[in-house]
Amino acid sequence: MSRTYRTARFRRRCDTVGLSLAGQARRGLTAGCTMLMCAMAAMSAAAHGAEAITDPRDIRAGSRIPAENYADQPFVVVLPDGAWLCVLTTGRGKEGERSQHVVAARSSDRGRTWTAPVDIEPAGGPEASWAVPLLAPSGRVYVFYDYNGDGVSTLDGRRIRADMLGWYVYKFSDDGGRTWSPERRRLPMRVTACDRANQWKGQVQVFWGVGKPAASAGSVFLPFTKLGRYMLDDGEGWVFRSDNLLAESDPEKIRWELLPEGDTGIRAPEFGSVQEEHNLVPLSDGSLYCVYRTTIGWVAASVSRDGARTWSAPRFAAYAGDRPVRNPRANPRVFRTSAGKFLLWFHNNGTRSFANRNPAWLAGGVEAEGDIIWSEPEILLYDPDPKTRMSYPDFIEQGGRFWVTETQKSVARVHEIDPALLEGLWGQFKEPAVARRGLVLDLPAGKCGAGMTVEWPRLPDLARGGGFSIDFSVVVENLERDRAILDTRAADGRGLALTVTRRGTVRLELSDGRAAASWESDADRLPLWLHSRRFVTVTVDGGPKIITFVVDGRLCDGEQSPLPGGEQGRDFGWGRFDAALGDVNGSPKAVVGVALGGLRVYDRYLRTSEAVGNHRADRGLRP
Fold it and tell me: Which SS3 state, helix, strand or coil, does residue 457 take?
């Protein structure tokens, strides 16, 4: 192991105590000084009582993947010997600068440590970007990426970023990514209407890919996005198909065709200009299911039944209740497991920009009538800083375990996924059950009538990462005024209160005597309709500092209409609270304001799947 890489490993250890040495190293610190400073920081943190990161959803708990200053699209294949090979786009500068190139690194311990990266393309050559790998049955690894082979660097006399211009090319490795073929081969990308509309009239093509190639029925399908106008306008999806790559060892004999047939790619005109980052998975019948990002607040989806030659009119990826999945202008990523189940990474808000990529949410999918229906989602990863943007994930499956990679553009990491989270997502389509772990109060209807006082359990400190959930059902007879459901507030304001508002929402208010927070359920499609029993779970999660509501088995997501002119809701169905909010224990007794059909309190946060299971069990619903 080289001295340089040993230093990189020490830097990763320093992440857990909050010391960043990257800038100092670039200013000329020696490797020895860097290691000394890391050791001193660790000792100082221990002396001051710093705690290790214990929430696996906190991205800082992940293992860092080596890169230069910039790091993007850390995509992994599991090699025949069990080692991992990660390809990623990196560079000494920022995204889009001239030094951008693609590299590969290996891990023999499932992402905990990595070899020093090796160049697939050098930093000094034309820009090389957005690498996606494919493992062939022979053990050969192909990597496909953008390559500025024409050396385009200006437009209308001004300098531009060129990481999406030029050729789609590939190289391959027959030794597990240690070395790569010296020659690169260009994919035959025919010129279409999208290309002819760009500023170069098709003489230069504008495109990039974020989807790993998928194998189905003996063919390989490589999805990517073309742009009709530089920069980032008029996007549409395309797919390269090879019917012999998996069996053919001679690159000269590999066949390629660009699909869909015709002059237009995968897009819906009514979705607007931004339709990008297409990625796909095969379904059990050989159909292809494709998702991509938009700027109308939703994940778009399309299906091909004929090997990518034609595609259905794009619509929205949907939960089991046909509610569209919300997402900003960020990469939604679909993954198929070896067991034929599905996962969807997205960000669960209806904003339109590149922001709001924290936290990352995960839904589980199952096939139904040639489509995928998605479970209610869970928080998969978060950063304590809401401004951090994580994206461009990859999923890894090995030995019955699952991992995810992600990047914030400067740090790429790998994280193992809790199997209980995954089983919960897929379990939403199975027999329901009431969650029992952490249940500290469980009252039947007769014990929580209007005007009653109940013993209230002590709740964890939110500032220390604790959380809790309150689960109940209620019937509201009128909405002429706000009506208290529960109130534990003490004379100094500490405690919590739950209220049914005149708008038909449930509002939670919290206070520790100094800091306060409040949030409420959606008003537009999940109100507490009069004279009808509704099932509610409110969860306060002290890890990501987020409050969620699940009403009748559906996570509140703001419910904004997916198309212009539709009913407008909120961009967020979940709300953040200040990290300073801590002990919200008020009175040891809670006053019940309206009759409840049962009350449960948990001294931990319930996952969405557990709340869904509670609601379905309480309502007697079966698969």
Answer: coil
Mean pLDDT (the chain) is 90
Predicted confidence (pLDDT) at residue 185 exceeds the cutoff of 50:
yes
CA distance 520 to 276: 33
pLDDT band (50, 70, 90) for residue 478: confident
Domain boundaries, given as residue ranges, for the chain: 3-47, 439-619
Please check whether residue 268 is in contact with residue 313, taking contact to mean a CB–CB distance below 8 angstroms. yes
> CB 621: neighbour CB atoms within 10 A?
12
Cis before 324 (ω within 30): no
> Which of 12-16, 134-138, 346-350 is predicted least confidently?
12-16
Please tell me the distance from the alpha carbon of residue 128 to that of residue 184, in angstroms, as a whole number.
Answer: 11
End-to-end CA distance of the chain: 54
User: If you classify domain 439-619 with CATH, what class do you get?
Assistant: mainly beta
For residues 475-490, one letter each, b for 16 or more C-beta atoms within 10 angstroms of the residue's C-beta and e for the rest, the string is ebeebeeebebbbbbe
Q: Give the rounded distance of the alpha carbon of 132 from its chain centre.
A: 18
Span 403-428, mean pLDDT? 97
* Tens-place pLDDT, residues 597-610: 999 999 999 999 99
CB 579 within 8 A of CB 541: no
The pLDDT of residue 530: 75
- 558 in Cβ contact with 573 (< 8 Å): yes
Please report the pLDDT score of residue 49 as a whole number: 37
- Taking the CA atoms of residue 611, residue 614, residue 615 and residue 616 in that order, the dihedral angle to the nearest 10 degrees is 120
Query: What is the C-alpha to C-alpha distance for residues 406 and 72, in angstroms, rounded to an integer?
Result: 8
Residue-wise DSSP of 274-307? -EEEEEEEE-TTS-EEEEEEESSSB-EEEEESST
Give the sign of the dihedral formed by CA 213, CA 216, CA 218, CA 223: negative
Query: Tokens 């002059």 identify what position?
Result: 263
b/e string for 258-291 if b means 16 or more Cβ within 10 A? bbbeeeebbbeeebbbbbbbbbbbbbeeebbbbb
Average pLDDT over every residue of 289-303: 97
Instruction: Identify any residues that bridge with 554 across adjacent strands, giving them in sequence order.
Output: 551
Name the pLDDT band for 562 (thresholds 50, 70, 90). Answer: low
Closest CA to 367 of 302, 298, 426, 307: 426
Question: What is the pLDDT, as a whole number, of residue 45?
Answer: 35
